[in-house]
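name: query_chain
kind: protein
chains: 1
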Amino acid sequence: MGGLLILLSLLVSVLLWSDLRSRMMWIVVGLTVGYGLLGFADDYRKVKQRKSDGISARAKLFWQFLLAFSVALAIYYDPSFDNELAVPFFKTFTPHLGWLYVPLAAFVIVGASNCVNLTDGLDGLAIGPVMITSGTFCVLAYTAGHAGIAEYLQIKYVPGSGQLAIFCGALLGGGLGFLWFNTYPAQLFMGDVGSLALGGALGTIAVLIRQEILLAVVGGIFVVEGLSVMIQVASFKLTGKRVFLMAPIHHHYEKLGWAEQKIVVRFWIISIILALVALSSLKLR
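structure:
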């Protein structure tokens, strides 16, 4: 449950340094706290009540989607919202989704939360890409909230989103402090209280600044981890055979004999490359 330390440092920093009149900030803080409480309840049942399964998967998904749909509706009914989907590397292709944006936004938030949760399986594996994604979205949030820069880079201008750069910076700092104790061999473990909350926060920020597709690029490691589980389950149910030696995919490489540190560092390297690809989309349009 070491994720509590990340959330504590994150929330204290946000409350000290952000503009508390910002509606966007309260949306992402509310979602982060909500998912953090859900993860805390799950961890508590595992650790204190000796129930290995924690909260059932159905109950967890129910509460995740309930909170995510609440956030999606709050964004959709904002007067400044235009329900356009930003497509990286294309400056004129911005399809209008209408009310379909609500389920899309909820899916992005829940998907990001669960994919980060699945990635949290080796010492330092999840927090590294979380920090890299946070740093990338710190840049994206600031550029989207600055009218001049947004116009120059031909990206969607989202008034007030610059405040989210503070949240991303605080998340990066909190993650850095956590990594000091989470690196191999770990003294602290994130737990669901951290992974569900941090993934949900990143998904919410992506929705708020209209960069949902870029989240899948920057967080490509999370996407692959989530897909590996889905492929494994589907393959076993349909054919009785497994595609990977073990899922999520980082365990597949463990079974192949890769050292834990080797897997973690290589996944970090891939995350950095994906972050650079995402940032290049600001200019390659």
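note: The mean pLDDT is 92.
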